[in-house]
Specification:
Elements (H helix, E strand, L loop, with lengths): L1 H12 L2 H16 L6 H35 L1 H7 L4 H32 L7 H31 L3 H26 L8 H13 L7 H21 L6
Helix pairs in contact: 1-5, 2-3, 2-5, 3-5, 3-6, 3-7, 5-6, 5-9, 6-7, 6-8, 6-9, 8-9
């Protein structure tokens, strides 16, 4: 499985389309207008990290890791050569985690430099909380990719997986918030996004955000387990 992951990552970073999008999003971040006060500056960056940046980078990552391999038959070849289906699923999610972590690490460094040169008093604590938020963005991306992985493998439909991921990224938070407000039922609070928001709020106050545990166990671990069980029974031509 290690060799598969290494080969996947090598292929991804050599794709011109992926590199172009990475560079463009980082340039946009570096040249974006600076806020007047520290709190607004941090909020601008957080909003960018959790929306446009995650949305933009998810598309080339999904195309490289899932769509290309499924459409080319690489996944079928791996299974035919003896790699278990569970390891195929895990290897792809590890690919996603590594790529998102590396990308957000660079984005955080760019944001940190921007904060240092902005001419406003941004404290080390604010930058540290931005780092924690950055890690939460990575986790959010992995969670949505796990759902996309389920669709892609169980239904053998990379286009369906991408559609599900983009819908989750674009409208899931807003839709659940609207439903929670309308029906006064904590739909959003117990969703993946809601649990991550609560966990981050706790961390920002200096406490342990225990909500991160069910977010990971239920919404990532549970989805991966379901994917493995269903994909194991999936009939595909080897």
């Amino acid at each position: 499985m290690r060799n598969v992951i290494r080969a996947d990552l090598g292929r991804i970073i050599r794709k011109p389309s992926f590199l172009v999008i990475i560079v463009l999003t980082l340039i946009f971040l570096a040249t974006r207008k600076t806020a007047d006060v520290a709190e607004e500056q941090i909020e601008y960056i957080k909003e960018y990290f959790n929306t446009l940046l995650l949305f933009a980078v998810s598309i080339p990552v999904f195309l490289s890791i899932y769509t290309d391999d499924i459409n080319s038959g690489s996944v079928i070849n791996l299974i035919g050569k003896g790699l278990s289906r569970k390891k195929v699923i895990l290897s792809k999610l590890i690919d996603v985690t590594v790529v998102l972590t590396a990308y957000y690490s660079v984005a955080y460094i760019v944001a940190l430099i921007k904060n240092m040169t902005a001419g406003i008093a941004i404290t080390p604590k604010q930058n540290m909380l931005l780092l924690v938020y950055t890690l939460f963005c990575v986790l959010r991306g992995v969670g949505f990719f796990s759902v996309a992985s389920l669709i892609a493998f169980v239904f053998w439909s990379p286009s369906g997986g991408m559609t599900a991921m983009l819908v989750l990224l674009a409208v899931s938070r807003m839709t659940l918030m609207i439903l929670q407000k309308k029906f006064t039922i904590p739909i959003y609070d117990y969703s993946f996004d809601g649990l991550l928001d609560k966990a981050y709020s706790k961390f920002a106050l200096g406490n342990f955000g225990w909500h991160i545990i069910p977010a990971i166990v239920i919404y990532i671990g549970g989805v991966v387990l379901i994917t493995a069980l269903l994909f194991k029974k999936k009939e595909i031509d080897l």
